[in-house]
Write a structure and sequence with these properties.
With 522 residues, the chain is mostly beta strands. A hairpin with a 2-residue loop joins strand 5 (58-65) and strand 6. The longest helix is centred in the N-terminal third of the chain and has 15 residues, at 2-16.
Length: 522
């Protein structure tokens, strides 16, 4: 009888987690809410968390082996001649490395400090780079750290302060994972500071460093409001020791890029995808793709897919659809999509590309008490529908699908919202928090536009959804994956991490001061 019972329990566990093998940790108490999870291998990883007084908390580093904490220590910014500021933490060659800045004697310097697997600093901090600060300069002067996808290179990028009359000047240094300098130098953006903003930083797997920048039209006003309506063009630049190599992403069809992401191969063949609009139009018209041979400064292939009216209104309930149709019939604004961000890009073995977009925006409400005149501000975070699409190697669009999702939270930065995704075999798999009311008793999605519920964070109604998209046809299978009742904690998809070299995903779940981890193998 006992053997039969054990077998039933094992079968139930396997069935509840679909075709993927998942290994779970226990739900354990943590000293402070986890702020970052830094994978090493399978169930071995590091975490950081703040603990102590709310006004002056201490940042701690913990080493987890087979999910269990084996060592823990404070992250400090101690330098030989004082204390600096922690700018970031990365895992380089399986070793925690803390980056520390220090303003002293008129200079801003950046150091790195290695930590052991006992979560203790070992060796002395070593200087990476520095720049001189003008007298009276009060800006923070941050350093930004970028890591290549293959973890073999990292780049330090920073702004070099100058006078108001000078153009913005920047410095950079690319180093290998062995801390050897690959390239370094300074560069200026060839545009007035108020007319340009850097939108993307990208460090390739060969150590080449690229920027994408949005350039805006001059409107004669002192303060320029940078928006899609006055966007002039998007420029791609490679940063080299000799300066910038520039390529304008301008297209004869009058379309303007509003958001993009990109990747490259070892021959500087770059793939781009994202969202586009039209000059003078504030919404999103569709999705684009193109490949660029950066050495030849030549676009090899391109594709544009405009959202149809049916696609835009797909998933809308009857009432919003009727309102949109009335406006369109009166010659007013056609229905359109807004506030979408590029979330992910995956290049498949056959050269085709999978892209993912998510609707994201923040609504800010400020309330003033008429009696005391005290003000309070509420931030409401919206993470809504997804758009997934596949683009063939020649730039043609294979399929495009909208996935209905509503996640709303207040004053938490959307901690439990958004998605995690990975490609396995011929499937794109997407995980996110949802509401059990959107599914039937067998866990299958109920596709009813007039009966749809926002994600729930209550024990009885929370579930993590698994959406599987067939890469050939784009067909969708949506079902529940695991529930709050099963795990006793809520999933934090933003902190999930995928390792394609090992075909595994590290999952993070939190409940109050307790946390749980799982490794999904695919």
């Amino acid at each position: 009888m006992k053997k039969i019972l054990i077998l039933i329990l094992v079968l139930n566990s396997i069935l509840s987690f679909s075709q993927f093998d998942v290994k779970w940790s226990e739900l354990v108490s943590g000293k402070g809410k986890v702020s970052a999870v830094l994978p090493v291998s399978y169930s071995d990883f590091y975490t950081t968390r703040f603990s102590g007084p709310r006004m002056f908390p201490t940042l701690y580093l913990a080493k987890h082996s087979n999910f269990s904490v084996t060592s823990r220590g404070k992250l400090t910014a101690k330098l030989e001649n004082g204390v600096g500021i922690i700018e970031g933490l990365s895992i380089i060659k399986d070793i925690p490395v803390v980056f520390i800045s220090d303003k002293k004697d008129g200079e801003n310097r950046l150091y790195y400090q290695k930590y052991s697997n006992l979560c203790e600093p070992y060796g002395l901090p070593k200087e990476i780079t520095s720049y001189k600060m003008p007298k009276g300069w009060k800006r923070k002067g941050e350093f930004y750290i970028h890591i290549s996808d293959n973890k073999e290179f990292f780049c330090i990028d920073y702004e070099i302060p100058g006078s108001k009359e000078e153009k913005d000047k920047f410095g950079y240094k690319v180093m290998s994972s062995e801390f050897e300098v690959i390239s370094e130098g300074e560069y200026e953006l060839p545009y007035e500071s108020n007319l340009v903003s850097i939108s993307n930083n990208y460090l390739s797997n060969t150590g080449d460093y690229f920027l994408a920048a949005k350039v805006y039209k001059e409107n004669g006003e002192k303060k320029l409001f940078k928006s899609q309506l006055n966007l002039d063009k998007v420029v791609l630049m490679q940063v080299t020791p000799d300066g910038l190599e520039e390529f304008d992403l301008e297209f004869k069809n009058g379309k303007t890029i509003s958001d993009l992401t990109f990747s490259s191969d070892n021959k500087k063949l770059m793939s781009f995808t994202g969202l586009y609009g039209e000059s003078g139009f504030g919404g999103i018209k569709g999705v684009f793709f193109f490949q660029l041979d950066f050495n030849k400064k030549q676009i090899i292939s391109e594709g544009w897919n405009e959202f149809s009216k049916d696609f835009i209104t797909d998933g809308w309930s009857d009432r919003p659809k009727e309102k949109a149709e009335k406006k369109a019939s009166k010659g007013k604004v056609e229905p359109s999509l807004y506030e979408y961000d590029v979330r992910d890009i995956q290049t498949l073995k056959d050269g085709s590309l999978i892209g993912m977009l998510e609707q994201y925006y923040v609504v800010v409400h400020t309330y003033t008490d008429p009696k005391t005149e005290a003000t309070s501000t509420t931030y409401t975070y919206y993470y809504n529908d997804l758009i997934a699409y596949k683009i063939n190697k020649d730039g043609s669009f294979d399929w495009m699908k909208k996935i209905k999702k509503t996640q709303v939270s207040t004053n938490d930065g959307g901690f439990y919202s958004s998605i995690a995704s990975f490609v396995s075999g011929n499937k794109l798999n997407i995980l996110f928090n949802d509401n059990l009311k959107n599914y039937d008793e067998q866990g299958k999605f109920i596709n009813d536009d007039n009966r749809f519920y926002a994600a729930s964070y209550r024990k009885k109604s929370n579930t993590v959804a698994l959406v599987e998209l067939d890469l050939e046809e784009g067909e969708i299978d949506r079902k529940t994956y695991f529930d709050r009742k099963e795990t006793n904690a809520y999933a934090v998809p933003k902190k999930f991490s995928v390792d394609y070299t090992k075909n595994e995903m590290l999952m993070v779940l939190v409940y109050g001061k307790k946390e749980k981890y799982g490794v999904l193998s695919f």
